[in-house]
Design a protein that fits this description.
Elements: H1 2-13, H2 19-43, E1 45-49, E2 53-59, E3 63-69, E4 73-79, H3 82-87, E5 89-96, E6 103-110, H4 112-123
Antiparallel strand pairs: 1-2, 2-3, 4-5, 5-6
Helix pairs in contact: 1-2
Length: 124
């Protein structure tokens, strides 16, 4: 939104060439649509931890499901950028070892620490 407000200011209250408001408008639209896409993708994604496996489901028109058995999990990794820490989001990566490595990446999750801790508790 700040870029779109800057576009309006540059367009109506200054005498600079139109190329600058156009650039800020395109950048604002890009960042807004990227955020909207991320939010929409997260509303269609579910993560489950059972006593046997970790499941990642994505439902749009069809179903895409990835599962990792708890016995094959070799690592749980948490990451947060500065921005994600400020808004309470985080990323969790669950990976299995071995020749055919499986991995589930959970991006922009609310309360990611408790989810990762739940996986660690079920594994022990």
């Amino acid at each position: 939104m700040p870029l779109l407000i800057t576009t309006v200011y540059l367009l109506y209250f200054t005498n600079i060439p139109y190329v600058y408001p156009t650039i800020t408008f395109v950048l604002g639209l890009f960042t807004f649509s990227t955020g909207l896409h991320t939010y929409w993708t997260n509303t269609l994604t579910n993560y489950y931890v059972t006593n046997n496996r970790v499941i990642h489901e994505y439902r749009f028109i069809s179903l895409a499901r990835h599962e990792i058995p708890l016995s094959k999990i070799r690592g749980v990794q948490e990451r947060k950028s500065v921005t994600e820490s400020l808004v309470g989001l985080g990323n969790v990566r669950v990976a299995s070892g071995g020749g055919s490595s499986l991995e589930i990446r959970m991006r922009n999750m609310h309360d990611s620490e408790s989810f990762a801790d739940e996986i660690r508790n079920v594994m022990s």
